[in-house]
Amino acid sequence: MTGIAIGFAMVGCSNNTEQLDAFRTENEELRVQYTESQEAVQAADSDLQLALDELRAEQERNGTLQSALDTRPEVVNVFENIGGVSATMRDRDLALTVASDLLFASGSASLKKSAKGTLGEVATALNNRFPNQSIVVMGYTDTDKITKSNFKSNWHLAFDRAWAVRNYLVSNGVGENRISIESWGPTKPLATKVASRRVDIVVVDE
Fold it and tell me: In the structure, what pLDDT confidence band is assigned to residue 95 with cuts at 50, 70 and 90?
């Protein structure tokens, strides 16, 4: 009888050990699942916070841009009313952009007759609003290499176009001593070839 009792006791201990091992295994699996769930929640919280930060930054940028539009100098509107001219502020400098296709025929640095009216209005506004400030005329081209033109390069073409604009402004009363020339050639292209071909007239804040 005693041997049989001991046998049952050993079987009972074995069953308990197996159950305990099973509980431990299940507990460890649950612990792993809980850890993974916590990490997933933390990652989701991190992504949400990042999205909120980006949204807040974008709202701040939009607010800054709107503030700049609301408070930009009234003079910008004066130049924007001139056909073919776009006016923007570059820091504190006023930049007037005129498309080269409006000013010149392809591969040419001779002003079109139709362009002279536009530049005449620009000269009048410059004399009225900025009678003493320095002006920089900047010429740009697209990135296509010149093949059918008398100009050696886009740099030469951009310079001569800026020079033509400068001369016309001077002929309309803008002081020649306060105008300088810069040729940027193809180095600062915009989204399209048409947009890249342009002349900037920059009024320098002093």
Answer: very high
pLDDT in tens, 41-91: 787 778 888 887 887 887 777 655 545 444 455 667 778 888 899 998 888
Encoding tokens for residue 85?
Answer: 């001219």
The CATH architecture one would assign to domain 74-203 is 2-Layer Sandwich (3.30)
Q: What is the pLDDT of residues 131-163, one digit of tens each?
A: 999 999 999 999 999 887 789 999 999 999 999
What span, in angstroms and rounded, lies between the C-alpha atoms of 58 and 165?
A: 39
Q: 140-158: b or e for each residue (b if 16 or more CB lie within 10 Å)?
A: bbbeeebeeeebeebbbbb
Backbone angles phi, psi at 134, to 5 degrees: -70, 150
Q: What is the pLDDT of residues 108-118, one digit of tens each?
A: 999 999 899 99
3-class secondary structure, 143: coil
Helices marked H in 72-143 — which ranges? Answer: 74-80, 100-103, 113-129
The edge-to-edge listing of strands for the beta sheet with 179-185 is 85-90, 93-99, 198-203, 135-140, 179-185
